[in-house]
Amino acid sequence: MSHETNARDPGDVGPGFMDAAELTAREGIARYVIGFVLACALTAASFYVLNTSLIWGPGIPVALVVLAIAQMGVHLVFFLHITTAPDNTNNVLALAFGVLIVALVIGGSLWIMDHLNENMMPMHQMMQMQR
Amino acid sequence: MSATDTSFDRATDPYRVGHGREWLSAGAGRGYVHATGHGEGGPASKRVIVGYGFWIFLLSDIVMFSAFFAAHAVLQTATAGGPSGRELFNWWSIVLQTFLLLVSSFTCGLSAVATEARSQLWTQLALLVTGLLGVGFLALEGRDFAGMVLQGAGPDRSAFLSSLFAVVGLHGLHVSAGLLWLGTMMAQIFVKGFRADILRRMVCFNLFWHALDIIWVALFTIVYLIGLGR
After folding, report:
1. Do residue B70 and residue A72 have CB atoms under 8 angstroms apart?
2. What is the fold of B46-229?
3. For chain A, which residues make up each domain, given as ranges?
4. Of the partner residues B17, B67, B116, the one whose CB lies closest to the CB of residue A18
5. DSSP secondary structure of chain A
């Protein structure tokens, strides 16, 4: 297996690789600790927001979604080591395409089904017609 | 500009993003540019290609999850007269599951650091803790599922519950598969040591486990927290 080395690639960095920054074990652990603390704080905030009167009721789902997106960002940066550095361009572009498809599928479904529900005949009228 | 110009940092900026293309065309003629895929840079190393390929798989997995999430978001109020999330969900079980998975993601990251340091003992310990936390997570989820089915709120009760069992169950299946993989990795590292091919599998496993936690963040927010509010 002479061709299989662990040498650093001069070009790109794969996702999840920590070698670009050449961290020591201590620095590597510190990075995971920072990510863990941030993720815990955001999770705790999510659970807190649910039962708070601090935020106007109908705004709570929006706050929850914002907190979730923030936490996903923390996971991507501190756990998956996705950065904005030029050697990560390919990873970020693939991620951007994934996010586009996810947004289209979820946003599109909610949008279409919401309009369908509005234009739907109420259930009791439908029952009467079937008699 | 000369193609052999070393005034930029090749390690962190191989493509010289934002510096125009003149440096590329200058180098392309003589075929001497260090960036991968350009000139004589050649394709990326196997390690980078494997990691990137697995990243593409994970993103496609997330796209599949998005369809399940969309179905659940649309059907969240379609309870057909059956119990809603507010009556079914066990608040403390959700909190506990969330933190079990978050801590397991953290210890999984520690196993990557230990692997980087080529420490057999710490890698095995970190993976073992990750696995035990994962088993705890699955046990809680299984208990919740069993409780709901016993209450007559199984996946056949309403469209809301069908989509709930589908999306949460799909995540649970992923965690189960991840646990099998984790056991395999522990055995392989123990028997074969830190060989190049084993290290590549370790990188992929780490990506997989962290991705599971990212999906859980979406899951506990959309299914449980927003579901509790409905």
Report:
1. no
2. Four Helix Bundle (Hemerythrin (Met), subunit A) (1.20.120)
3. 14-83, 88-131
4. B116
5. -TT---PPPSS---TT--GGGT--HHHHHHHHHHHHHHHHHHHHHHHHHHT-SSS-GGGHHHHHHHHHHHHHHHIIIIIS---SSGGGHHHHHHHHHHHHHHHHHHHHHHHHHHHHHHHSPPHHHHHHHH-
Domain locations along chain B: 1-43, 46-229
The answer to whether ipTM exceeds 0.95 is: no
Test the A interface: residue of B52, B217, B219 with most A CBs within 10 Å? B217
**Please, which residues 98-117 of chain A have a Cβ atom closer than 8 Å to chain B?**
98, 101-102, 105-106, 108-110, 113
Reported as a single tens digit per residue, the pLDDT across B118-144 is 999 999 999 999 999 999 999 999 999
Joined together, the tokens standing for residue B71 give: 């179905």
Whether A130 and chain B come into contact, CB under 8 Å, resolves to no
In order along its 131 residues, chain A shows pLDDT tens digits of: 334 444 455 567 778 776 655 678 888 899 999 999 999 999 999 999 888 888 888 889 999 999 999 999 999 999 998 988 877 888 999 999 999 999 999 999 999 988 887 777 676 777 777 76
